[in-house]
């Protein structure tokens, strides 16, 4: 699935009091996640037909502009923990490969001594 962007069309409004039940295409908006540098990871409601050529460019942020700072801290912490987990997984895979190689070499040496 392609990353979603936070394109804002001419008929859209991020200051609306609430999300519309339908977009300008009379379809139910889809909850998406922004992948832009200005709003990475920020959720928004957009037209379900966006990026398939016939979207109406409906757009509305899912959360208010001044989001709770605790939420931002938690998002940053989750991202940091995800990076740490990925490093640990790489280290584990390397250790596993070295262990398998070591046991294989030990088995071959033992086999050679017995023959």
From TrEMBL:
Low complexity composition bias: which ranges?
Answer: 1-13
The protein's superkingdom reads Eukaryota
Q: Does the keyword section mention Cell membrane?
A: no
Domain (GRF-type): give its ranges. Answer: 23-65
PROSITE patterns assigned: ZF_GRF (PS51999)
Keywords attached to this entry? Coiled coil, Membrane, Metal-binding, Transmembrane, Transmembrane helix, Zinc, Zinc-finger
The record's GO molecular-function terms, alphabetically, read: zinc ion binding
Entry's InterPro entries? Znf_GRF
UniProt key word GTP-binding:
no
Q: Where is this region: Disordered?
A: 1-21
List membrane-spanning regions.
92-111
Pfam families for this protein: Zn_ribbon_GRF
Coiled coil (residue ranges): 71-98
Name this polypeptide is given: GRF-type domain-containing protein
